[in-house]
Amino acid sequence: FAGILALDERHGRAAGRGWISFCYITPESRGLRCGIQLIGAAAARYKALGRKALALTVAPNNPARSTPRTT
After folding, report:
1. Strands lying side by side in the sheet with 3-8
2. Cα separation of 54 and 17, whole Å?
3. What is the rounded CA–CA span in Å between residue 27 and residue 25?
4. Rounded to an integer, what is the distance from CA 67 to the centroid of its chain?
5. % helix / strand / coil in the chain, to the nearest 5?
6. Residue 3 in contact with residue 25, Cβ under 8 Å?
7. pLDDT digits (tens, 9 = 90+) for 9-49
8. Among 5, 67, 10, 13, which residue's Cα sits nearest to residue 36?
9. For residue 25, which of 53, 3, 58 has the smallest C-alpha distance?
10. Structure pTM?
């Protein structure tokens, strides 16, 4: 178990967006690119539904907001 991803297929439909309503990565899975895999699964699902973009909200107190990302 690496994390949880919840999608809301109704939210954003009119605007052509897929909405990720919840994403959680377990502490021991962070830094292992599990989040990228979960987001990739969401992107594939929404692409199959004809959506052109993804949207999500990150809580202001989430440490991931200020974590530098590298590829």
Report:
1. 3-8, 17-25, 53-55
2. 5
3. 6
4. 16
5. 30, 25, 45
6. yes
7. 999 999 999 999 999 999 999 899 999 999 999 999 999 99
8. 5
9. 3
10. 0.79
